[in-house]
Structures
1.
Amino acid sequence: MNGLGGLATGFVAALLEAWQELRIHKLRVLLSLIGVTIAVTSLTTAVAGAGMAEQLMKEQLERQGRPAMIYAYANDPTNMGMPTATNETSAAFKKTAERFKVEHTSIVGRSPGVQATHQGLSVDADVQVVDPDYAPMHRIFAQRGRWLEEADANNLSPAVVVDKTVVRSLGLQNAKLPATVEVGTGGEKVSVTVIGATSTQDYGTMGQMWMLPETYEHWFAAAVPLGDVSYAMWVPTENADELASNFALQMRAELPGYQVNAQRVDYQAWGADESLDQMAMVVAAIAGVILLLGSLSLLNVAMVTMKQRIREVGIRRSFGATTGRVFFSVMMESVVATAVAGGVGVLLSVALVSNPTLINMVLYGGIDEMPGFPVGAALLGMGVSVAVGALTGVLPALVAARVRIVDAIRV
């Protein structure tokens, strides 16, 4: 116990001594640590920013369907082989989904573009006919108002949810929801009720509008028949391809004469997740370069200043400081200094990366689920700063350890 106590006392004493030396050489410390602070801030921000970018990319990819997303198509050969939705096909899909115990399902139909108008403003919008489960299946959130519910099928006014493009184009940013909008189809206009607005937006000029199948059938199908219909289901990723094949066989048995296909369509099925790994590798390479430049700058300043401290080290040796004590104290100066610089760098990185306004400006389209600052990035920043301090402190510490009393006299 006495041995451990002595080591602890010596370690604390070395830390205090290093801190006192840093206070004495404030200007030297400040100049040498500016580069370290910038390097750690850049490194931590790069790693944390990569997490944000990965989150945004993941959101964009999952809006096409979360893993594992399977789409089923029922083609009637008598209808030129186009995917159709009838009571018969919908009933067959529902029955097959229940047999396979699929919990999240939705019809997905698209209608030709319509024109939405509100108080003199207008925008072209793409209508998607979906069930309520479509939102969680495609990572869609109603940031204002709410998403579609089954009860909306009985509304006296058609209930719709719109995206950012429609909201911005019709000047609904500050309007209270629900709001009334005119939708033109086939020369006729129908007043619809906007019950929710999502955070998503199309990268083109078209907006998006979602409504229930019952709503479309009642209000719009007579003017513009629904086309390009498919059936979506969200299932576990394990054995998803096999499930798709078996699902198609079973649904085909429910629809004699129809051509039924089912295939997985989420981003993991076509290897887009590999791009996320490649992005992480690129960020790691950039972080390595940043770290290398910061450590070289610190090492250069430390070596130059150590040559100016030979007299100081010689005086300490004359008062009985051992080689090990001199080596450890000089190295700890670098470690303590870089630890402080690393802490400042991490705080600056947190301030930058955790700013939602800044993130939404940098990342086009924004981010729905703002993740907290990655703890791993903060720990990496602090760990790297301490490691850099230890590595860059070795050479100056070796120079100091070799200083003799006679060298100090000659200076």
2.
Amino acid sequence: MLEVKNITVTYDGLSNAVDNVSFRIDQPSLVGILGPNGAGKSTMIKGILKLIPSQGETFYNNSPLKKVQKKIAYVEQKSAIDYTFPITVKECVSLGLYPSKKMFQKISTADWKQVDVALEKVRMLEYKNKQIGELSGGQFQRVLIARTLIQRADLIFLDEPFVGIDATSEKIIMNILYGFRNLGKTIMIVHHDLSKVEQYFDQLVIIDKRLIACGATKDVFTEENLIRAYGSSIIVKGSEKQCLPNL
């Protein structure tokens, strides 16, 4: 169970980028975080994880997040990662092992086998000795998911994992995320493609700096809530939902 209480993030000391957001996820789920550009979706995740200064508290299974850090994985937007860093695919994935290691403890032969298994699951084993800078956007996102696989986290935050990736990579990643959910994990995903929301997510958190709605997708993915979040730029027609640029 994930409980977020009164998360507020203030950047300039005057206005709130995220304003007093509270919600609760009671069961293992794939949870989409929706909202327009500038709504504070990524900022909210960073505030929840205390990666940036924030007010409020978050609990996972009734424990403060700071006490269960080894159970949490966070994959930031690809655009925030330095592709030129001289590290191979297998080395990048192996970083997921370090939260469970003691200081100065080396990666074992058994650990490297885990890395290979994770890369095989995301169909990236043949690339394990390549530099990450040689990968496409979709391939690199699959590597980041492999890193999450070997971390064995129970609470996973993914920030726009499907931006700029190919359809094959998206399908592979979603199948892995469904498997995570079925193993009892909760996955929080910042997402922007409204056309796939009903297909992908069990629950939604819709925000525009403040919380608009939280609950089962079938209950909160409504025309009313989307208009509250996106305004008049939203078009709702049957099961098709998309945003038009403001004119």
